[in-house]
Amino acid sequence: MDKAVTTRWWLVRHAPVLNPERLVYGRSDMPVDLTDEKALRALSRHLPNDAVWITSHLSRTLDTALKLLELMDENILPTRETGFAEQHFGAWEKKHWNDLPKGETTRFWTDFARQHPPNGESFSDVVERVGPIFDRLTRYWAGRDIVAVIHGGTVRAALANALGLSLEAALSFHIDTLGVTRIEHITGVDQPGWRVTGVNLRY
After folding, report:
1. Which of 177, 156, 5, 144 is nearest to 76 (CA)?
2. CB 104 within 8 A of CB 118
3. Which terminus of the chain, N or C, has less C-beta within 10 A?
4. Superkingdom, according to UniProt (predicted)?
5. DSSP β-bridge partners for residue 17
6. What is the pLDDT of residue 195?
7. Which pLDDT score, from 0 to 100, does residue 192 have?
8. Are 162 and 185 in contact (CB under 8 A)?
9. Spatial CA neighbour of 149 closest among 75, 45, 44
10. If we measure between CA atoms, which residue out of 163, 164, 162, 158 comes closest to residue 180?
């Protein structure tokens, strides 16, 4: 049998978003709050050196990643993957929940996993979008540590794909800002596959 190869994903949700009006902002590019240097520094001490770094195309993930890399004294420019973006809320983006049509939001929350906002995505759509990219990068960077600074919905979608979870099971995970979810893909063993080493870890 071939030698075992372990690919380690460090899924980090970005720092808190500056959103005092509490607007819907899934795919919108909102500024990020990086003032909690104590939390950022604590997280940076637990991330691996010489890792592959990936973010979505949204600035809140890239800015968080660059701050963490600065604290780690790592000179790396993360790869930006548009497919790792947060769920798209379509016509609801940048609007207040209270201003949205009640019929549309009621229907959405009755089956959050499969219903989608007007011109937007359901969580099921996110899982289907994230899966092929996640699989491709796992193969391409086999044997490496991969730090992905992404979004809560993207982390849940990655867990759904890796573990074969139902949509409802994946949505049951609470993912904090600056929380870390660690999963590993192992090949070259009798039972290859995924294992979880930590979900929503805070340092």
Report:
1. 144
2. yes
3. N
4. Bacteria
5. 32
6. 94
7. 78
8. yes
9. 44
10. 158
Q: Is the pTM of this model over 0.70?
A: yes
Question: CA-to-CA distance for 203 and 130, rounded, in angstroms?
Answer: 27
Cross-sheet strand order for the sheet of 52-55: 79-80, 52-55, 145-150, 5-13, 180-187, 193-201
Token digits of residue 194:
């995924």
- In the numeric block, which tokens belong to residue 93? 């983006």
> In what helix (H) or strand (E) does residue 147 lie, and over which residues does it extend?
strand 145-150
Show the CA angle centred on residue 70, arms to residues 45 and 39, nearest 5°: 45
Per-residue pLDDT tens digits for 24-71? 999 999 999 999 999 999 999 999 999 999 999 999 999 999 999 999
- Return the pLDDT at 3: 86
Which residues partner with 180 through β-bridges?
A: 12, 201
**Tokens matching residue 137:** 């990068």
Please state the separation of Cα 117 from the chain's center in Å. Answer: 20
pLDDT digits 0-9 by tens, 132-173: 999 999 999 999 999 999 999 999 999 999 999 999 999 999
In the block, residue with structure tokens 């978003």: 17
